[in-house]
Amino acid sequence: MPSIVAPPRTIDRRRLPAIRAEARPPGSSAAARTTARASRVPAGATGSPRILVVDDEASIRMLCTINLGLEGYDVEQAEDGGRALELIGRSHFDLVLLDVMLPDIGGFEIARRVVAGHTPAPIVFLSARADPADLRAGYEAGGLDYITKPFDPTSLATRVREVLDRIDRGESERYRQARLTELGGW
Fold first, then answer.
1. What is the pLDDT of residues 84-137, one digit of tens each?
2. Which residues make Cβ contacts (< 8 Å) with residue 179, sequence separation at least 6?
3. Own/partner pairs for 112-121, CB < 8 Å, 24+ apart?
4. Which domains does the chain have, with CATH numbers?
């Protein structure tokens, strides 16, 4: 006789911080930290900033998705450049985390297309290529930040928040230009 198994319960990732806070006793430091993190995420069209993670390594995509999702971001994934361009072309993203070395279209080329396109999206590179020439190429392609692998997954949301804050304050281009100057690009 076959066993009956209940289907897994699905949880809206955007509600995870609130669910965790509700599960803890009031006044606990963990609940306070969760509430503070959730309050830093500004409301966008979907209630949370939308992030697209583009990387050919499934483990990196999943690591980013989990960590950013736990912080209240709405995260989508693309495994290659073609899929990334397709998603960016038909949907709004507040930020794109973009690997440089993709199997079909390089990250720098994707960034140039996105920046020049009709629906530009802010780009943050996520790459194992840490040579100053690669960093310079990333900023020249229009990237607003460059995170090198391996990276601390717990600090990823902080870096994303910093970039989104610079965009909100209108300081992203000035920061990009300053980084280019430091790297000898301008």
1. 999 999 999 999 999 999 999 999 999 999 988 877 789 999 999 888 899 999
2. 135, 139, 146
3. 112/141, 112/142, 113/85, 114/85, 114/88, 114/142, 115/141, 115/142, 117/88, 117/89, 119/88, 119/89, 119/92, 121/52, 121/88, 121/92, 121/93, 121/94, 121/95, 121/96
4. 49-182 (3.40.50.2300)
Q: How many CB atoms lie within 10 A of CB 15?
A: 13
Classify the C-alpha dihedral 30-149-126-10 as positive or negative. negative
Which sign does the torsion angle of CA 185, 98, 95, 39 carry? negative
Helix (H) or strand (E) holding 97: strand 95-98
